[in-house]
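=== RUN LOG ===
request id: a7f3
mode: sequence -> structure
chains: 1
length: 176
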Amino acid sequence: MKDCVHFYPEPIEDKIYGNVLIKRGLKRRARRRELYINREMKDILSELVASSKCEFVLTHPGDPTKPLGAWVLETQIGALRKRIHPHPDAGLHALRHTFLTGAGEYTDPFTLQYVAGHDNIKTTMRYVHPQANAVQKLFVRLANLDREQNGFQKARRFAVGAKSGAAARGPQDCIA
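=== RESULT ===
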């Protein structure tokens, strides 16, 4: 529905141009989500809103006075499959999976869960596939943090002893 798409008068940080309010979802937790619009999405949604002759953003391909039917995209993909014979796993869900897997590299699983509208974090975790260099990237980012600015003290280096919980003064005091 058009009332779910909001364009900001000015972009936030030159990157966020509006939002889309998801009012309904398959699961209760998936309802009432707000997702943000980048420049490319704004351009596409602006055209769709302008061409729509009803209260919906996504309209019937042949008649902009009618909303897009529930199975139009699946029907179109089915017809395309018959013509080009893609891999059996290729489809709308594969696109969703690809997006969520890629986004998982830039955010935490709980934000990904919110974006996907998953009720259970276990479902979201199926989309999180750390690449071989992801752990290395994490530690490089951590090493590049300005420790003093983030409240860490460089001068005092303590380790916690495994048995007593007492602070150790150096590596000789730590239990391996």
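=== NOTES ===
Residues 160 and 167 are 5 Å apart (CA to CA).
The radius of gyration is 24 Å.
=== END ===
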